[in-house]
């Protein structure tokens, strides 16, 4: 029995399962990555169900226990091809078999699952600690390359709006890392990278660490190269049915960090936002809705 067989069997039996087993089945169907990667007790804790119920579901499918079910999901995860080109080939094959709708539904289901994971207690605690570190910093340097650049840019953009000292360590001509010459004790480097990790990002984090700055890392694994360098670690999930990793959870995490930092800064943040809005208005930065001209009577 492989993962596809498990999914098919659960689909056939779902409506006939007792209430508790149906809850476990729903968890298995909705959280394939967790089934493959988490221990049974960890899954039971997240699902709010008894571990024994997971075992009973596996036995209902003819397996000796839940570890055997987990092994089918882990095998499927290991068998997924590496590299963007290979995954794109897999995506095209899936499209030919299942069509647009199945891929779109799977994409949004994966994204919804990843966003939900950010609200779990451990993830929220990580976000709180990271926000406190960022809010208390003398200055924050934001660094992210390639697909991670928008996350770094977003944090820098919002820090500027709330009047918090911030530097986006990126620039034309490859001079972005030069900004880290000024980083030091009391400062924080906010750094973002997910697999495949960019070498320069890891080097930037190591440089900031050597210069005495604290590191807040946004990445996809506790075993990421950034994890060993980080004082605070924010973990996001990136796997999708597509060939390319998703950065949607990273943006959501940054938006949460921005909200927490703003709340921590209090009145100075409000004053800075009001000043920023006044300047934007003065330059007519945003298009205002035009009022219809009154016709002469």
UniProtKB/TrEMBL annotation:
<dbReference type="InterPro" id="IPR046348">
    <property type="entry name" value="SIS_dom_sf"/>
</dbReference>
<dbReference type="InterPro" id="IPR009057">
    <property type="entry name" value="Homeodomain-like_sf"/>
</dbReference>
<dbReference type="InterPro" id="IPR001347">
    <property type="entry name" value="SIS_dom"/>
</dbReference>
<dbReference type="Pfam" id="PF01380">
    <property type="entry name" value="SIS"/>
</dbReference>
<dbReference type="InterPro" id="IPR000281">
    <property type="entry name" value="HTH_RpiR"/>
</dbReference>
<feature type="domain" description="SIS">
    <location>
        <begin position="130"/>
        <end position="263"/>
    </location>
</feature>
<dbReference type="GO" id="GO:0003677">
    <property type="term" value="F:DNA binding"/>
</dbReference>
<dbReference type="GO" id="GO:0097367">
    <property type="term" value="F:carbohydrate derivative binding"/>
</dbReference>
<keyword id="KW-0805">Transcription regulation</keyword>
<dbReference type="GO" id="GO:1901135">
    <property type="term" value="P:carbohydrate derivative metabolic process"/>
</dbReference>
<keyword id="KW-0804">Transcription</keyword>
<keyword id="KW-0238">DNA-binding</keyword>
<dbReference type="InterPro" id="IPR036388">
    <property type="entry name" value="WH-like_DNA-bd_sf"/>
</dbReference>
<feature type="domain" description="HTH rpiR-type">
    <location>
        <begin position="4"/>
        <end position="80"/>
    </location>
</feature>
<protein>
    <recommendedName>
        <fullName>Transcriptional regulator</fullName>
    </recommendedName>
</protein>
<dbReference type="InterPro" id="IPR035472">
    <property type="entry name" value="RpiR-like_SIS"/>
</dbReference>
<dbReference type="InterPro" id="IPR047640">
    <property type="entry name" value="RpiR-like"/>
</dbReference>
<dbReference type="GO" id="GO:0003700">
    <property type="term" value="F:DNA-binding transcription factor activity"/>
</dbReference>
